[in-house]
C-alpha cells in the first residue's frame, strides 16, 4: 500500500487547488514571507517585507528560513523514526527555495508516514509544475543519513537526494525548474494536512536533527535566520533549537493547555 501522507507544500502565495493534497500554511503568509499579496482573480501583486529575525512564526513548520537571493541550498539530516505505538499520520523533512510569484518554488526531502499500522519513509521532490504534489524518488529508512541539494545549473533548478547510509542517489527531472529571482531558503520539518480529510495527525516521532546547512555555498548566519515553530493541537509545539555549528534539532514541547 502506498503511503497516503507524503509531505506536500503549498507556497503562501498560491491559491488552493481542487484534488491536490497540500499543506496548511498559516502565519507564514501573514508575518514572514518576502511577499504581501492581493488576489484579484489570477492577478498577484507583491511587495517586499522586512523579516523579523527575533519572534518565531507559528504554523505548520519547524525549522528556519533565510531571506535574500538564493542560487543553491543544501542540508543533511537523519530520517526521524515514527514510534511503533504512534497513531497513523505523517510528517516531512525538506529543504526548499521560493520566489515572489506563485509558480516559483522547488522542494526536496523525505516523508515519514504511518498508515494502517505500516511505516513508510520515502524521498520526494516537488515544484509547481507538479501541482505542488510530492513526487516519489526512492524509499529510505528511519535513521538513514540524508544529504539534500538544490542548485541553479545553467539557468535551470535541479534537486538531488543522497542516502549516505545505503549509497542510493536520485535526482529530480531537469527542465521543470525554470525559476528566477528566488528570495527564500528553507530548512523545514512539516506537519502536512489533507484538505478533504481535515488535519493529518502529526505522528509520535523522534526529534529531527538537521546539520551542514548551506545557502549559496556558505553556512547561514543564525542572526539572519527566521525561526519557524510548528503548532500542534492542544497547544503542543515543535520548536527548533538555536543553530549551533550549522546544526539544529526540532523538539516537541509539552502541551500548554
Quick synopsis:
The chain has 257 residues and is mainly beta. Helix content is 2%, strand content 45%.
SSE topology sketch:
Blueprint: H1 27-31, E1 38-40, E2 43-45, E3 57-59, E4 61-67, E5 72-78, E6 89-98, E7 105-115, E8 118-126, E9 135-139, E10 145-153, E11 156-163, E12 168-171, E13 184-190, E14 193-194, E15 198-199, E16 208-215, E17 225-231, E18 237-240, E19 247-252
Parallel strand pairs: 3-17
Antiparallel strand pairs: 1-2, 4-13, 4-17, 5-10, 5-16, 6-7, 6-13, 7-8, 8-9, 10-11, 11-12, 14-15, 16-19, 17-18, 18-19
Jot down its keywords.
257 residues; mainly beta; Jelly Rolls; 15-stranded mixed sheet; two-stranded antiparallel ribbon; 19 strands; 2% helix; globular; disordered N terminus
Amino acid at each position: 500500500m502506498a503511503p497516503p501522507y507524503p509531505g506536500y507544500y503549498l507556497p503562501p502565495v498560491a491559491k488552493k487547488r481542487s484534488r491536490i493534497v497540500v499543506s496548511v500554511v498559516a502565519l507564514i503568509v501573514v508575518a514572514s514571507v518576502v511577499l504581501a499579496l492581493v488576489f484579484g482573480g489570477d492577478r498577484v501583486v507583491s511587495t517586499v517585507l522586512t523579516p523579523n529575525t527575533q519572534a518565531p512564526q507559528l504554523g505548520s513548520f519547524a525549522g528556519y528560513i533565510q531571506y535574500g537571493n538564493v542560487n543553491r541550498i543544501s542540508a543533511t539530516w537523519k530520517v526521524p523514526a515514527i514510534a511503533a505505538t504512534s497513531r497513523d499520520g505523517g510528517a516531512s523533512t525538506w529543504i526548499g527555495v521560493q520566489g515572489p510569484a506563485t509558480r516559483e518554488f522547488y522542494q526536496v526531502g523525505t516523508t515519514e508516514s504511518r498508515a494502517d499500522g505500516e511505516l513508510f519513509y520515502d524521498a520526494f521532490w516537488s515544484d509547481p509544475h507538479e501541482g505542488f504534489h510530492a513526487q516519489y524518488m526512492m524509499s529510505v529508512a528511519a535513521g538513514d543519513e540524508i544529504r539534500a541539494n538544490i542548485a541553479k545549473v545553467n539557468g535551470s533548478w535541479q534537486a538531488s537526494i543522497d542516502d549516505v547510509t545505503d549509497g542510493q542517489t536520485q535526482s529530480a527531472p531537469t527542465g521543470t525548474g525554470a525559476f528566477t529571482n528566488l528570495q527564500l531558503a528553507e530548512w523545514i520539518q512539516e506537519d502536512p494536512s489533507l484538505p478533504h480529510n481535515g488535519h493529518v495527525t502529526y505522528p509520535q516521532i523522534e526529534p529531527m536533527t538537521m546539520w551542514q546547512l548551506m545557502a549559496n555555498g556558505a553556512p547561514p548566519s543564525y542572526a539572519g535566520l527566521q525561526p519557524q515553530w510548528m503548532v500542534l493541537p492542544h497547544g503542543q509545539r515543535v520548536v527548533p533549537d538555536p543553530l549551533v555549528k550549522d546544526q539544529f534539532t526540532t523538539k516537541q514541547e509539552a502541551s500548554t493547555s
